[in-house]
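Researcher: Following up on the earlier apo prediction. This time include the ligand. It's S-adenosylmethionine, with the SMILES given after the sequence.
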Amino acid sequence: MLDAVQHAVGRDAPVVEQKKLNRATQKFDFAARARLGSALFVGEGNFSFALALAHLKGVSPSSLLATEYEDEADLGDTAYDNAAKLLKLGAQVKTGVDATCLSKAIGPRRFRTIIFQFPNVASREALYG
Ligand SMILES: C[S@@+](CC[C@H](N)C(=O)[O-])C[C@H]1O[C@@H](n2cnc3c(N)ncnc32)[C@H](O)[C@@H]1O
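Model: Understood. Below is the ligand-bound prediction.
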């Protein structure tokens, strides 16, 4: 495969080292990160991902802060239910949190891991990619 790529881009192009390639394809271990504690979830949508991690053995829910961009009043039923479950487990939940201005909603608090999966502003405008 690498040979084919090398051939396509020309012999003078730098060779991609297999070690670097392996590193790039390693999967991010969300469970391991959650077990480390101090994890912030941004743009959680219906909170199902944070809830799944909060249930994992070895994860301390109280060290998780799950947030969503929408305000509480705009959450759907599933999001609302999952948020309630997270709170019951001891996790923190916050709505109306904008990833472009985290300090506004969260203040100076620091986190070991910040997770924002599938960011999407629901716009077709080029400005938003
Ligand atoms: C495609 S959904 C993904 C939801 C969830 N992360 C998941 O993986 O299921 C995109 C999410 O990004 C949120 N979002 C959009 N703009 C945002 C912003 N500026 N800050 C934080 N979240 C934002 C939306 O409210 C929505 O929940």
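Model: The longest strand covers residues 64-68.
Researcher: Noted. I'll compare it with the apo version next.
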